[in-house]
Amino acid sequence: MRILIIGGGNMGKTYADSFIANHAVKPEDLHILVHCPESVTHFQSLGFKNVYHEVGEYIKHMELIILSIKPQDTKELFPLLAPFVHEKQMILSIMAGVKMDSIQKALPQVKKIVRAMPNLPSQIGMGMTGFTSTEDVNKSELFWVHNLLNTTGKSLYFDDESLLDAVTAISGSGPAYVYYFMDAMTKAAMHMGFTQNQAEVLVEQTFLGAVHLKKRNDLTCQEWIQKVASKGGTTEAALKRFEISEVDQGIEKGLEDAFKRAVELGN
Q1: Phi, psi torsion values for 127, nearest 5 degrees
Q2: pLDDT confidence tier of residue 5, bands split at 50, 70 and 90
Q3: CB 71 within 8 A of CB 98
Q4: What is the pLDDT of residue 82?
């Protein structure tokens, strides 16, 4: 399958690297369109051969076109793409907030559209991506796209496009919430007398171990909490303070605000 990635930013390069590393596409079938000649030289120095900085006839021969650009760049790009795209092609967009209907209106020739929302850990193959599609994308095509997205971590398909706003609030923005909690724990550890390096090691390994432990068992988060929290012990003391401060409600309201903002940006 011939793939064109439009955009040479972090996610564009992430997909290019992941597809090749996981043998999801042959090197000669991967094409990259970047914004300037300097980026062409950069990607060629990394071993990519089919790199362009202008649209052209080659686009007609692509089977999948991945839009890895900023939403505001579509005003310039779509008119340039329009003469070269056709109904047999599929478009995969990872542009935040840009609905499939908007893409179809700008490129009416294209009927097969997939919209995905990856997150930052996709850069190291540990990402979480939610995706959806138009009805014209058949099951075998969805399976192929699913496998491509899985080269960067895990992916989940949703019939309802509106759920991608919730994906944005949960997993798209999610790494920042984790870092926020880790930062608070690190500062608390330093106040207790640890150096910054010691505090970071303690906190990072605690998060890493806790996640892996949960993944290896069927217990819920609440069941794991009960396993750690002995009656009258240290964990219970911290949890009681979290309850008094309504930390759980604050987190839930924060995610609700993120969801509302995702909807606003999409509109």
Answers
A1: -80, 170
A2: very high
A3: yes
A4: 96
| CATH tag, 3-159 | 3.40.50.720
Sorted by where each begins, the domain ranges of the chain are 3-159, 174-266
In this predicted structure, the answer to whether residue 97 has a pLDDT above a threshold of 90 is: no
Q: Do domains 3-159 and 174-266 have the same CATH topology?
A: no
Q: Which amino acid is at 228?
A: V
The answer, as to whether pTM is greater than 0.85, is yes
Q: For the segment 219-264, what is each residue's pLDDT rounded down to a tens digit?
A: 999 999 999 999 999 999 999 999 999 999 999 999 999 999 999 8
Q: What DSSP string describes 150-180? A: HTTEEEEE-S-TTHHHHHIIIIISHHHHHHH
DSSP string, 46-94: TT--EEESS--GGGGG-SEEEE-S-GGGHHHHHHHHTTT--TT-EEEE-
Q: Can you tell me which residue has the tokens 């908007």?
A: 102
- Give the integer Cα–Cα distance in Å for 187 and 199: 8
Superfamily of domain 174-266: ProC C-terminal domain-like (1.10.3730.10)
- C-alpha distances in Å from residue 46, one per residue of 9, 15, 17, 148, 265: 14, 14, 10, 21, 35
